[in-house]
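Input chain follows. Return structure tokens only.
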Amino acid sequence: MGEVDRLTSAAGTSATALMENAGSAVAREIERRWPARPVIVLCGPGNNGGDGFVTARWLAEAGWSVRVALLGPRDRLTGEARHHAERWRGTVEPLAPATLAGAELVVDAIFGAGLSRALEGSAKETLAVAARRGLPIVAIDVPSGLMGDTGEALGAVAAVLTVTFFRKKPGHLLLPGRLLCGEVVVDNIGIAPSLLDQIVPDTFENDPGLWISDLPRPHDGGNKYTRGHALIFGGYPMTGAARMSARAAARTGAGLTTIAVPEIALPIYAAALTSIMVKPLVAPDDFDHLLGDRRVSAFLIGPGAGTGEETRAKALAMLKTGRPTLLDADALTSFHENPSALDQAIAGPCVLTPHEGEFRRLFDPSGDKLTRTRVAARRCGAIIILKGSDTVITAPMVGRLSTPMRLPHWPPRDRAMF
């Protein structure tokens, strides 16, 4: 966003004008949601505080009862923040819990997404008191104390509304930040979407607009063989997850779906699946014969497969083909004693779908969620889907994939984060 601001200024829109647009946008969103009431605007010493001064001025001009509290001396403000602070005609109080007296709405303009340290002192104390009193808080950009690039909360309290600018930040979407932002509104504030072509972001909020054009569609001249053949390994006695996976493969468009199962499990799978072909593994080399069928175009192993040498060997055999392979659940855990063996075996398009526990068994769990999934994807050369209520999907920027990964085209809309 710093580069966005720089390019916007270079194109003729001043930073002062951008701050005016930002603060006025916050004021408009407040007026849309609440009738006029006493409001305290908590301003920090940087540009976020400058946005707060603009918000205060716009609300006051609209007839609201507005007070401003500032963290630090007013004469230390610089640049655009100083300019807009000088346009504020009201008093400026020192930021402290006492400034909350009589307020029915709090605007948090202390720190924005660029904060890199924990909230402390009077800023932390004042926001904590506001939260305990149940005062509604409107955050500018992000709640103060929320790391915009990771979602980590270092003293932040929950807002009911967060107004951010141009595009969301990862902190609006990743936990725990997502739970602290309340309703998130993205305002453009006059920044040209075409600037994204110069910045070339590599992080996106998942949305069908990113991938719908690449989703395979049936066509009149096709048949089941032109739509792919999925081969899934089904374990025993845990059979439910593999059956669900087989149905999912068929429902998402695989022309043929086969599930290979231990002979003892054949009646269970066959009775539950109709359009899915069930192949019992009777002889030791039956599985290898299935892998050798060139009509099979993609593999899945893991759900209900059981952990250990047998599952690991089957996963390695799938990966050795170089065809698209997805490893989940037990297939991932089967490599926990030797994760490098999995890295070295990935020779073609591969997707790994760990939850947090499985991720820790294979990869370095330190760092924020985006960073560690990126490191993991680069290390093994696979797409990593780190599952959770804030799932992160990371493709390796540089890997050993036989087919280069295509990053999605940037959609000119407000649904992307970076």
